[in-house]
Design brief:
Elements (H helix, E strand, L loop, with lengths): L8 H4 L2 H8 L2 E6 L4 E3 L7 E7 L2 E5 L7 E6 L4 E2 L13 E4 L3 E7 H10 L1 H30 L9
Antiparallel strand pairs: 1-8, 2-7, 3-6, 3-8, 4-5, 4-7
Length: 154
């Protein structure tokens, strides 16, 4: 199993697990400018983008929300649904028309509870994405607010 930081569900999970997750998915669409969720809200679903772009943003008091990463085709939108207290840590907005697969978090957690191997695979997949997004957010905030930026070479 490949659990690279940006691994799509197709690359990260065996076919059997993907099929089980897709059995609880439904197709949805969002027009450009739609808010998928707000930071601090209840995380009760997640999405895999089929087409379009979604910006992840962070509320900065006294300033506009800061976009920390833009997601596109095949990427996971939302990870807070997996970890208690199931509260969004970032916000998300469609920056173009978006078509996606939407997953009910309670249904996926129930599948995971029934099958520890599925739970381990999903947790490893989502956990690797969380680690990647944490690093991306840190670098973005350093670039915006630290006196010398993130220090990464151009």
């Amino acid at each position: 199993m490949n659990a690279s930081p940006t691994a799509t569900m197709v690359r990260a999970l065996p076919a059997e697990y993907r099929e089980r997750l897709m059995s609880v998915a439904r197709e949805v669409s969002f027009p450009q400018g739609s808010r998928l969720f707000k930071e601090g809200g209840h995380a009760d679903r997640f999405w895999i983008i089929r087409t379009g772009n979604v910006a992840l943003d962070l509320h900065v008091p006294g300033r506009r929300d800061v976009v920390v990463e833009t997601l596109t085709h095949s990427q996971l939108v939302g990870w807070s649904w997996l970890f208690p207290p199931h509260t969004w840590h970032l916000g998300a907005e469609a920056t173009s028309p978006v078509r996606a697969y939407e997953f009910d978090a309670a249904a996926v957690r129930a599948l995971c509870q029934e099958d520890p191997a599925l739970a381990a695979a999903v947790t490893q997949w989502v956990g690797s994405i969380v680690a990647h997004r944490l690093q991306s957010t840190r670098k973005r905030l350093l670039d915006l607010y630290a006196p010398y930026g993130s220090g990464s070479a151009l």
